[in-house]
Amino acid sequence: MPIPSSAMASERDLLSTEIVNRGIESSGPNAGSLTFSVRVRRRLPDFLQSVNLKYVKLGYHHLINHAIYLATIPVLVLVFSAEVGSLSREELWKKLWDDARYDLATVLGFFGVFVFTLSVYFMSRPRSIYLVDFACYRPHDDLKVSKDQFIEVARKSGKFNEESLEFQKRILNSSGLGDETYIPKSVITSTENTATMKEGRAEASAVMFGALDELFEKTRVRPKDIGVLVVNCSIFNPTPSLSAMIINHYKMRGNILSYNLGGMGCSAGIIAVDLARDMLQAHPNNYAVVVSTEMVGYNWYPGSDRSMLIPNCFFRMGCSAVLLSNRRRDYHRAKYRLEHIVRTHKGADDRSFRCVYQEEDENRLKGLKISKELVEIGGDALKTNITTLGPLVLPFSEQLLFFATLVSRHLFSGGGTSQPSLSSGKRPYIPDFKLAFERFCVHAASKTVLDELQKNLELSEENMEASRMTLHRFGNTSSSSIWYELAYLEAKEKVKRGDRVWQLAFGSGFKCNSLVWRSMRRVRKPSRNPWLECIERYPVNL
């Protein structure tokens, strides 16, 4: 069966080519000759051109859910206006008083039903979850390394051959990282194995307690007041757990609800907030602390497998601690209110499941293997996530325009397909997410990923500024990166009252998660912030 030319064109548009210099051939018929190879890769899918009907179904479902209000409220307003409009103010009050005096039982019954309905509504509605404040750990300056120093540290360790060092150097030069990121002291000074329990606990203590000390100081909340504790760290999961380390260090109360999330990748910070939200909904008048981190030294790979060397180049030290509250008295001092959490999991697909995979190489050295299909898989997960998020946050006008253009395209295209033809030259109307959010915190994974996301979501340089500057200054700090980005926005005093903040993260599994906050007030430059000593130098020209 012949393949349609439009399908072949769609497939070609997802491919990119790269010419790789393989050096001088040492043997064979081409010995002594300079050889090249052509590498073909799949790019991030252009989901501006591949929006499916699921988005429309969700948006239409949202419209139908509110249809009764849209239909009845205008009718009631018209009837009430017709009835009351002919009466003067004195006549209206006289009519109301006469009706109430002669039918007191009806008035009292109506009032009782109204009070009962109002009470049930307020008792059954979900509690508002507030973000009181947060803190991000900034390591000491003696742990700071430039890209050249990083390669020198790797060379002095004696664990990498020249080919592996050259590969890491190329990755670093195109990574988007600057020369002031942080790596653990064990990686800098030791030539031995850094993936030990002792080094892992030492790094965990430094980053977690550093972030929590700052959080408790800023919020003036005692550790014993915390009712829920959620810690997420993907790679390092000792016994006792990291949450137990925190409880022991701060001598927290015995009935605290503590949870430790492991192996959930860079998007685990949003999952931890989701768990904390559920716990706060079930336990009123409480505080919850969410700690997000990753142990770089414990995940350090000393081998030569290129797909496992990539995490060495990107991941850097970092930790965030967030204080959440469901107490009404915290309304006036909270910075943000939680609006939406949307989680997407692609683990049922084998390619997605294995695209970020921890295993041993051929020399039985443990590392995190990154698939070449990561960008493509991440794009698919992101498309699903924003498809679900759209109807919750986009203005009704945007949803209506999108629905109308999609219907017209299906009616007049003649093909009846749900996917647009690239050869037709007609692009579907894509809702503008800049109308739904004022501030963006996209997980700072790598420069390549940020470039593709910016292009496909049609975001501006200002929208991506926090993500790019965080990657440049702190590197990929895993699940805590979205909090360093929010700290950047606060240090720049860009968050105003009513602003909606979109935190977007993705990680192993494969997962893509969205978190939406609404600012409760204008956020002034904090007294404690990881950016304060360098914020005047940013943004830098990359």
Spatial shape? globular
In terms of structural class, how would the helical and strand content be classed?
Answer: alpha+beta
Tell me what portion of residues adopts beta-strand conformation: 15-25%
Spans with pLDDT under 50 lasting ≥5 residues?
1-10, 47-53, 415-426
| CATH H-level superfamily of the largest domain | Thiolase/Chalcone synthase
Largest sheet entry: 9 strands, mixed
Global Rg: 28 Å
Compute the number of structural domains: 2
Write down how many β-strands occur, each being a DSSP E stretch of 2 or more residues. Answer: 15
Query: What's the CATH first level of the largest domain?
Result: Alpha Beta
Helix content: 40-55%
Question: Any idea of the CATH topology of the largest domain?
Answer: Peroxisomal Thiolase, Chain A, domain 1
Number of helices: 18
CATH architecture of the largest domain: 3-Layer(aba) Sandwich
The strand line-up of the biggest sheet is 7-6-8-9-3-10-15-14-13
Catalytic activity: a very-long-chain acyl-CoA + malonyl-CoA + H(+) = a very-long-chain 3-oxoacyl-CoA + CO2 + CoA
Domain Beta-ketoacyl-[acyl-carrier-protein] synthase III C-terminal: 438-518
Coiled coil: 443-470
Protein name: 3-ketoacyl-CoA synthase
Please explain how this structure is put together.
With 542 residues, the chain is α+β, with helices and mostly antiparallel strands. The chain has 2 domains: 15-41, no CATH class; 129-396 and 430-537, Peroxisomal Thiolase, Chain A, domain 1 (3-Layer(aba) Sandwich), CATH 3.40.47. 44% of the residues lie in helices and 18% in strands. The protein contains 18 helices and 15 strands. Strand 14 and strand 15 form a beta hairpin. The longest helix has 23 residues, at 197-219. The radius of gyration is 28 Å and the shape is globular. 37% of the residues are buried.
